[in-house]
């Protein structure tokens, strides 16, 4: 689930950090730039592990900061295909189920990746699995769910260029809801032990 990834970057140290030990100053700047952010084709950066190499700082005309080329390792969250995880159901709709972990929200279980004989109940806003003719098992909002990782996807997200200060708040909220995430996990609930944790307790 967690891996160490080696990265190289040119980090700017602002002048007010010059009296801070360089390892600490660089660590702080790396955290600001990387922690809790998606590294494309790598995963979700969690925290710096160590700094392996520090080059001599360079000054640029008109810039009081020091630019330091470094090599460091980050702890990255990147689940492997086939891994079983547990999360909480945050949304159910006709397309499937959305799940979140404590630190990651973009997990999707498409309807075709659910158990056979699953159907969406619009009134309850829940998916229902009928393992036999007599029983109905519901996947409700806020239920703990166990799932199998099937696929990961990275998307190139362009920055928003509309700087208008008169945007409609409802339009903004709709765009946030429908936005494409930079990193998404696609999962399944089709094997024994997957689905709502309460089913198997």
From TrEMBL:
GO MF term list: DNA binding; DNA-directed RNA polymerase activity
Domain RNA polymerase Rpb7-like N-terminal residues, every copy: 8-64
Function: DNA-dependent RNA polymerase which catalyzes the transcription of DNA into RNA using the four ribonucleoside triphosphates as substrates.
NCBIfam families cross-referenced by the UniProt entry: rpoE (TIGR00448)
Keyword vocabulary terms for this entry: DNA-directed RNA polymerase, Nucleus, Transcription
Occurrences of domain RNA polymerase III subunit Rpc25 (ranges): 83-200
Top-rank taxon: Eukaryota
Compartment list: Nucleus
Leader peptide range in chain numbering: none
Protein family: Belongs to the eukaryotic RPB7/RPC8 RNA polymerase subunit family.
Classification via Pfam families: RNA_pol_Rbc25, SHS2_Rpb7-N
GO biological process: transcription initiation at RNA polymerase III promoter
Name of the featured protein: DNA-directed RNA polymerase subunit
Xref: Gene3D superfamilies: Nucleic acid-binding proteins, RNA polymerase Rpb7-like, N-terminal domain
Alphabetical list of InterPro entries matching this protein: NA-bd_OB-fold, RNA_pol_III_Rbc25, RNA_pol_Rpb7-like_N_sf, RNAP_E/RPC8, Rpb7-like, Rpb7-like_N
Main localization, broad class: nucleus
Organism field: Candida tenuis (strain ATCC 10573 / BCRC 21748 / CBS 615 / JCM 9827 / NBRC 10315 / NRRL Y-1498 / VKM Y-70) (Yeast)
Cellular component aspect of the GO annotation: RNA polymerase III complex
